[in-house]
Amino acid sequence: MAVHDFTSERLYVEADLAADAAVVLASEQAHYLLNVLRMAAGGEILVFNGRHGEWRARLEDIKKRSAGLRILAQTRPQTGGPAIHYLFAPLKHARLDYMVQKAVELGVARLSPVMTRRTVPGRVNIERMRLNAIEAAEQCGVLRIPQVDDVAALTKTVEAWVPGGTPLIFCDEDAPVRNPITALGALTPGPMAVLIGPEGGFDAEERRLLLSKPFVTALSLGPRIMRADTAAVAALTLVNATLGDWR
Fold first, then answer.
1. How far apart, in Å, are the Cα atoms of 146 and each of 60, 108, 172?
2. pLDDT in tens, 75-115
3. Would you call 217 helix, strand, or coil by DSSP?
4. Are the C-beta atoms of 181 and 237 separated by less than 8 Å?
């Protein structure tokens, strides 16, 4: 397996990537390379698009407010990651940004904000979430950009879940099995969904709904109450270690 180059800058692009392909950069990307990184014509950078792996590219065709890249050679083939669908009650801006970034670093394939009865934030900026996911992938060497869903109501999401489909793990301080490793050990490795609730936790009706579904597993995160963003990191770490690609 190719080793990630931690010394080179990385840039996400939408265009298809192949040897000798020309990529026209968006204006903000050209500004970043030319004015922030101070790159000159002939400078090289790593690029990826979430589909065709990672490639080394050369900066060229520089104009006043635009620039292009010439794709040179592939440095890493496209790889996937754990098939983890992460559902969460949205948080306020800074903490939501942090949670999205950590979820990307931990390899989630899909991000789904769900509104619960105790969710505090109102409008959720989906484009901001996607940009945060891209930035996290650029910085930590991830090749896959997770799908980012629109906001949906938790109850509708659970009711629409396909019976017998992807198991849904929800973090519950009252889970009957106190040891999270034991609880996860009852599941078969494969595609998983992880649900983290709001700061105030799920209300009684939401818990009853979740626990009534055969595809749902309650997961304890130990004796301490965690903030939602901390719980996300803990839960995704446990799932990766027991059912995902850390095994």
1. 30, 6, 25
2. 999 988 899 999 999 988 789 999 999 999 999 999 999 99
3. strand
4. no
The helix/strand/coil state of 86 is strand
Alpha-carbon distance of 169 to 10, in angstroms, equals: 33
- Cβ proximity of 234 and 226 under 8 Å: yes
- In terms of phi and psi (left: phi > 0; alpha: psi -120 to 50; beta: otherwise), the region of 105 is alpha
- How many other CB atoms are found less than 10 A from the CB of residue 85? 19
Query: Which pTM does this prediction carry?
Result: 0.91
Question: Do you know the residue count of the chain?
Answer: 247
Q: Which two tokens stand for residue 57?
A: 């590219």
User: Nearest Cα to 216, choosing from 203, 227, 206?
Assistant: 206
| Residue 110 φ/ψ, nearest 5 degrees | -150, 135
Q: Would you state the structure tokens that stand for residue 154, as one six-digit string?
A: 């938790």
Cα distances (Å, whole numbers) of residue 206 to 163, 165, 184: 18, 20, 21
Helix, strand or coil, per DSSP, at residue 195: strand
- Beta carbons within 10 angstroms of residue 123's beta carbon: 7
Q: State which amino acid sits at residue 115.
A: M
pLDDT in tens, 183-217: 999 999 999 999 999 988 899 999 999 999 999 99
The amino acid occupying position 176 is P
